[in-house]
Specification:
By secondary structure, this protein is α+β, with helices and mostly antiparallel strands. It is built from 23 helices and 16 strands. Keywords: Membrane, TPR repeat, Transmembrane, Transmembrane helix.
Length: 625
């Protein structure tokens, strides 16, 4: 019996056609065919071969090519267009053959040497948007080629295209090398569509966009969460059935690591721990949980730890039918906890008919450490620094150091310590920032050296780069975490956080909204990161709305950012009140010694924040004693 399930894979698709082909054929059929044949033989075919592409098919005036690498696809397109210039220069204008090329990175279905699906359709639509002799690429493709080739890109914003249900974010390759022109970005708001009070959300991971549709409101937090087009799942906190109540952190760690393992599977949509953990200790109604978090499936379980033994039970439930799809009990040695977590993730994928890619399957079964004591302390350290107060950060530093002592080959200790030290620098919790940064960089690189597949190592490296004023390097670092955990809440969250420092506030907002969908229950960190990105995006009304729509209120230096926002909105009384509140507990704070300002790459952003904070009443210089 053969498996009829279509084979899917991620691919870079290049679609090309000839501008005005019908007219060319009508005027000179034989000459046009001869020219096309020569171009394919002498230029296009060799370019495809040189850049490791596979010609899927030709369609008279067009062709479809598949690449394993987006960089190869874009370089091939540029080579074709540059090669066509001298060829067309020798021809009369009415006989020139001008290709338009579109490139997309997306999921495709392979069948009989052909490829189908949205990944192909979007590439075809991009080709239609390209100028004759030009190249357009999708946002997903842009993210892969960033800083990897010499041609600048023009952000054309989002474009509604035929037969594609969502807007396509388009980038034009500037083949003449000219800098991008200033453009007016199209509105991101789509028409509201309401059907029996159902609100539709399209989560577009390929393009990095999150769209919310709701009648009468533009507030994403008020929207009803619709299901992802992928199997969507929330893992509720596993119950601690151990005799020792202090083993709560261990059962929580098992839950978080199962979520992490599931997030490595690109075919799943997985809710982040901080939203799932809002149900901790509750007798949660599965249907209500699914409705609250916008998922179809819920995984529940329990952990019992007795001396060196553990018992982990799990059950996977379809929240719509309330059917139990899969259940298992694992009685193992405590040192086998990592294998159990990976096995649970694999069984969930199997129950939901999700095929793991080869690299995902390999990463799923990778053990971070075999030292259960090191794992224990790591879980305690991770829980301690969740709220980054000065005391928690300093306690966390000691715990991560203990992890390294217990297992010098565990990347988690080094990654945690690196990130911890970089936070101390950003928040000015240390009087020796250069020493802290040097140590942080050493630890982050050590974490990656020990385990390239440990996503937090790359996020931690990004944190070090940000604290050292190199936001672009931070973006590159966290991009590796996104490859490892495409559904990772923190990978998307920190990509957004780092992008706004790098000067791409619009993209930062997109990634932060993806993180918000992965974790619908807001935390202080979610709100503060998004508010900061919206400030840099000059969306000041949205900054105020974020801080005033919920019970989450600004504290610490977030008050300075909100005060600067009020100043820019010409609301001086509210700005002054916030500054006064902050200075009550931080009387020595002043702008010239505010190291955080150095984090932003853009001088314009630094100056805008500085001047707005000064106008709000923040002292510019240290006060005289």
């Amino acid at each position: 019996m053969t498996d009829a399930k279509p084979k899917r894979h991620l691919a870079a698709i290049l679609a090309a056609d000839v501008e005005g082909y019908s007219k060319l054929m009508g005027e000179d059929e034989e000459g046009t065919l001869a020219a096309m044949t020569a171009h394919h033989k002498d230029l296009i075919g060799p370019c495809i071969a040189e850049h490791r592409g596979r010609l899927v098919k030709t369609t008279g005036d067009g062709l479809l090519v598949e690449f394993a690498s987006v960089v190869d696809a874009v370089r091939c397109a540029v080579a074709i267009q540059e090669g066509m210039r001298p060829r067309n220069a020798e021809m009369p204008e009415d006989k020139q053959i001008l290709f338009r090329i579109g490139i997309n990175l997306g999921d495709v279905i392979a069948q009989d040497d052909d490829v189908f699906g949205d990944g192909v359709n979007v590439a075809a639509r991009l080709e239609g948007l390209a100028d004759p002799g030009g190249v357009c690429i999708s946002r997903a493709a842009r993210d892969q080629v960033r800083d990897k080739f010499d041609y600048p890109l023009q952000d054309l914003g989002e474009v509604e295209v035929k037969n594609i249900s969502r807007p396509v974010w388009v980038f034009k390759v500037l083949l003449d090398g000219s800098p991008p022109a200033a453009i007016s970005r199209p509105s991101r708001k789509l028409p509201w569509r309401v059907s029996a009070a159902i609100v539709i959300i399209g989560l577009l991971f390929g393009g990095g966009l999150l769209w919310w549709h709701q009648a009468g409101s533009t507030d994403p937090s008020d929207a009803i969460l619709a299901l992802s087009d992928k199997p969507s799942i929330a893992v509720l906190p596993f119950d601690n059935l151990s005799a020792d109540a202090e083993q709560e952190y261990f059962s929580d760690g098992v839950t978080e690591d199962i979520i992490t393992d599931l997030s490595k599977i690109s075919g799943l949509f997985v809710i982040a721990p901080n939203s799932a953990f809002t149900y901790k200790g509750q007798a949660a109604n599965v249907r209500q949980v699914a409705a609250d978090l916008g998922v179809r499936y819920v995984l529940q379980g329990s952990v019992r730890r007795t001396n060196e033994k553990i018992r982990i039970t799990t059950q996977l439930i379809d929240a719509v039918s309330e059917e139990h799809l899969w259940a298992e009990r694992y009685d193992r040695d405590v040192t086998d906890v990592f294998a159990v977590q990976s096995e649970v993730a694999r069984q969930v994928a199997r129950a939901l008919s999700v095929t793991l890619k080869a690299n995902e399957n390999e990463r799923l079964y990778q053990k971070y450490t075999t030292n259960i004591d090191a794992y224990d302390v790591f879980l305690q350290a991770r829980r301690t620094v969740d709220v980054p107060s000065r005391d928690n950060i300093l306690r966390g530093e000691k715990l991560f150091e203990q992890v390294i002592e217990l297992d010098p080959n565990f990347a988690g200790g080094y990654a945690g310590l690196a990130f911890n030290l970089s936070v101390q620098v950003r928040f000015q919790y240390t009087d020796t920032p250069s020493t802290h940064l040097s140590r942080a960089l050493e630890f982050a690189r050590k974490a990656i050296e020990l385990d390239m597949d440990f996503a937090w190592g790359h996020i931690a490296l990004g944190g070090v780069y940000v604290a050292n004023g190199d936001a672009e390097a931070a973006v590159d670092a966290v991009h590796q975490a996104l490859i490892l955990e495409p559904n990772g809440y923190e990978a998307n969250l920190f990509m957004g956080f780092y992008l706004q420092f790098a000067g791409d506030a619009a993209s930062a907002v997109d990634y932060l909204l993806i993180a918000k969908r992965l974790s619908p229950v807001e935390t202080y960190r979610d709100v503060s990161f998004l508010a900061l990105a919206q400030f840099m995006n000059r969306n000041y009304e949205e900054v105020v709305r974020l801080w005033t729509k919920t019970s989450i209120k600004p504290r610490g230096q977030a008050r300075i950012f909100l005060a600067a926002t009020y100043s820019l909105l010409d609301r001086p009384e509210e700005a002054a009140a916030l500054v006064e509140q902050y200075l009550e507990t931080n009387p020595d704070f002043n702008l010239t010694e505010w190291r955080y300002l150095e984090t932003w790459k853009s001088e314009e952003n630094r100056t805008r924040l500085y001047e707005a904070a000064k106008a709000a009443g923040v002292p510019e210089f240290p006060r005289e004693n």
